Every structure is written in structure tokens, then in C-alpha cells.
Amino acid sequence: MRKFIIAIGLTLLCFAANAQMIGNEQMRQSDLPFLDSSSAFSYPGLTIPSLYPVLVDSKPLHKVMNSTWLNRKLFQEDLVLMKDDKYTISINPVLDLRYGREGDSLLYQNTRGFVLNGKFGNNLFVRSEFYENQAVLPSFASDWVDTMKVIPGMINAKSFGSNGYDYGVVFSQIMWQPFKSYGVRLGYDRFHIGKGYRSMVLSDASEAYPFLMNTFTHKKWSLSHNIASLTNPDFNNILGIPRSETGAFQQKWFSFTYFTFSPAKWLNLGLYESVIFMPSDSTGISFYPTSMLPLPLVRTVAEKSKGLHHAMVALLADATIKEQLILYSQVVVDDINSNYQTFQGAFQLGFRWKQKNKDWPIWAYSEFNIATNNAYTSSNSWTAYTHYDQPLSHPSGQQFVEWASGFHFSKFNWLANIQYNIIWATGLPVTNSYFGTDSYSGNGFYAPQANPDKVSHLQMTLGYSINKTTNLVVFAGLHYRNYKNSYSDIPTNSLMYEIGIRHTIRRQYYDFF
User: Fold this and answer.
1) What domains appear along the chain, each with residue ranges and CATH number?
2) Helix, strand, coil proportions of the chain in percent (round to 5)?
3) How far apart are CA 488 and CA 423, in angstroms?
4) For 377-400, what is the mean pLDDT?
5) For residues 434 and 427, what is the distance between their CA atoms, to the nearest angstrom?
6) Which sign does the torsion angle of CA 368, 373, 375, 381 carry?
7) Confidence (pTM)
8) pLDDT tens, 286-343?
9) Range with lowest mean pLDDT among 22-31, 69-78, 123-132, 134-143
10) Which of 66, 170, 277, 331 matches a 20 to 30 Å C-alpha distance to 157?
11) DSSP annotation of 236
12) 209, 230 in Cβ contact below 8 A?
């Protein structure tokens, strides 16, 4: 009986063994689709509704009694876990090893890295990631990379072998909350604002950037102010921006403010404002005092009138109905030009659904996205809404219509995902050049050519979760792409399949061209 009581006690301790950590991108989409400021997983003061990544509770350890150390480390726990009353540190290797085929071509991904996540005391949190990658991509993705000279959502890559790419990426964050209603973040990462698969405001499909963010909360109100340094390397010679005399890439100062109000537990309202400031010259950044103002709309009024900087405003809303259904929307106002009777901006409307049965997690989403002619473009290409030659919001840029949907199912350790999206746009794969300056050709909310390009992606994945604590999954997947160019009656079809094992930590998007 004594041994039985001890065993029960140890089991209960194992179930309670968790700590706050900085969440990953895959968590936003799959594990916690309804994560918000009222969730039990959130951490007050550092969490703002619909702003990711957030601080979450790490998953509890479900240990099997009499399990060996090797079995626990492979299938149940973090590889390295150091914990006492003052700190918790976890360190895990990260792998993404996959092989596949596209016709007669061999495809593969070989990613090695690590993730360090830590909590010190009650108010200091850190996360550090490093990945070294070699990849041979599908032909449509390789063509895009060869044109744009960057890996989607990542950085410039050097050639590897006859048709592969070699690149390394890092992410890091330090989060400190000295007071209950105030927190500060410093790091090199990217943010996603909104409940949707895409964001028309600020997306995790972009490359990471150095940033400093201050967060203020008070009851139903929250305010996050961020300043960051963006880069115009112009690898593809589209922006036409010269480098400095030293050969350094041109930098631009970026500042955004995200203000939210939750009048009820089920309703979140948001106001987003961003400004990309014109560099003083081609060699560096001028400091603009208004970039430090944490008040929304003030900078738009002050800076937009000067005609030098690129200001943008967005309204966001999401409503949770009976803890199962979320309705969400975004309205982006980039510019209203009365002379040309045009509106430049973007719109999103979607829903997410999750069943209540926790033993059979099922969730689905569907959303409609549209961006007008000249959305996100600027009066000067130096201040386009881009970073590292990629859009900061929706990866397709501007002048497109998209419908996207997905379905996720899991039981025990098995999981299945299906995603489908279709995009109508002018000039795919780079939709009418989101790098360009404003060109008021054509009126109306959306005026593509009579017969725009069309691309659709269907992705299906079946997997088995080896270790839920580290998100290690073995999987098999199929990806079908259909591309119809407006100048051709014959569509281009691509069918790719792959098998592999990976830690589901970071997202990469190849379904927007």
C-alpha cells in the first residue's frame, strides 16, 4: 500500500510538472487554436489577444512508471531539463529530415538545430533557436527562389550541390515582466497578428527582424509598442535601391502599435498602426522621435502628411461563440486617394471551429483574403512594406484574392492535416510586384486583368507524434499544385510526396505562388 501511494504521488507530480515558456509558431496553428488573453495558457502582462508568439505553459509530462531514462528522453521529455525553485531550462535538438519526389526529381530537407527555452524567477523568460539547412525544393519553389534570391520566410541562400540551397537561420527572444501590468521583449524574431492562417497585417511568413517591444495591460485594455530595424538588400534588383559606400544593405526603421480592448470575455477588438520611416540616406537610419510614441494614429497624422514615410492602419476583431467557434476579421487601410477614387488596403474574414471533446481534438478553419491594387506599396520603394525583399503581411503581396481552409484531426498520438487554398492574382508568382511604388492604374476595390493567374495548393499529411513535449513527429505527406497562367490555356500541374521525421517548431510557406 505504501509503494502504491508513493507511485500515485509521483504520477501526480509528473502531471503537474510544467512551467511558462515562449511558444512556437506551430502551436498557434494546431495545438492551441483558441489561445488568447483569457486562456489558461496565457501569462498576464506579456500576452495580447491575437499577437503571437505568446508565453504559454509547457506541456505536462506524462511519465510511464518504471520507464527507462532513454525511453523518457526519446518519447516523453525534453532532452535536457534543469529545474529548481528559481529557474527552469530546457534544451532540445531540432531535426527536419525528409525525402520525397516530384516526378523523376529527388526532394529533401536536412535541418539540424537546437531550441533553448528558459524561465528565471517569476518574470524573466528566454528562447533561442538555431537551424542549419540544406534543401532541394520542388521545381515551382526553386524557380521562385532563383527569381527572388531568398528562401520564403527565411534569408538569402547559397547554392548547394547541383540544384539545392544551403542556409542558416536564428531566432531569439528575451521577455521580462518587472510589473504586473508591464512587460518588455527584446530579440530577433517575427510576429503574427490575428487568428487566421494568414495575416493581412503582420505575418510569420516574413523573415525575422531585430526588435524592441513594450507591452502595457490594464484590465480589459492592452497596448503593445514595437520598434524594429528592417532591411532592403534588393537581391533581385526590383527595388532599385543602392547599397551604401561600404557595401552594407540599406536599413529602414519600422514601428508598430497594437491596441486592444476586450469589452467581454468572448470579444476582442484591435487597432493596429505601423510606420516605415524613410532612411536619411543610403548608408544608415535616421532616428525619428515619433517612432517612440506608443499612441496609435498619432504618428499616422504626423508622418503621413509629410509624404516621406509609409503609414498604415488596420482594425481587427474576433469573437468566440460557445468556446467552439471563433469568427475573425481584419480591415487594412493603406491609403485612400480621393483624386483617383481609389482605396488601397486589404480585408480578411474567416472562422475557426474546434470540437469540445478533448480526447479527439478536431479543428477546422476557412478564410477569405483580398488585397487591392497597390496595397502595401508606398510613394517610395525605399519604404515599401517589406523586409529582406519579402512582404511583411500576406506573402502574396498585393492585388490578389484568396480562399484558404484546413482541417486537423488527432487521436492518441495519430494526427492528420488537410489544407487547401486557391489564389487569383495578376502576375503570379510575384503578384504585380509588391515592391513597386504606387501606380494608380484602374479604379475599384480589386481590378486585376480580365483573366488573372490562378494557383491552388492541396496538402495532406498523416503523422504520428513520437514526443509531444518536443513536438517530434514522423509523417508522410502529399502536395498537389495547379497553376494556370493567364497567357496559356494549359495549366501546370505538380505532384510531390514525401516522408520524414521533424520537430514541428517553425512554419515555412510555399503555398502562395
Assistant:
1) 2-503 (2.40.160.130)
2) 10, 50, 40
3) 17
4) 85
5) 11
6) positive
7) 0.88
8) 667 777 777 777 766 665 545 677 888 999 999 999 888 999 999 998 876 655 556 7
9) 22-31
10) 277
11) T
12) yes
Q: Write the single-letter amino acid at 296.
A: P
How far is the C-alpha of 343 from the C-alpha of 365, rounded, in Å? 28
Residues 6+ apart with CB under 8 A from 416: 408, 409, 410, 460, 461, 462, 463
- Are the beta carbons of 41 and 35 closer than 8 angstroms? yes
d(CA 340, CA 350): 30
**116-164 pLDDT, tens digit each:** 999 998 889 999 999 999 999 999 999 888 888 888 988 888 888 788 9
CA–CA separation, 226 vs 190, rounded Å?
A: 11
Alpha-carbon distances, residue 416 vs 134, 361, 410, 475 (angstroms): 26, 11, 6, 9
How would residue 437 be classed by pLDDT, with cut points 50, 70 and 90?
low
Query: In sequence order, what are the residues at sequence separation of 6 or more whose Cβ sits closer than 8 angstroms to the Cβ of residue 477?
Result: 100, 459, 460, 461, 462, 497, 498, 499
CA–CA dist 365, 325 (Å, integer): 10
Contact 210, 285 (CB under 8 A): no
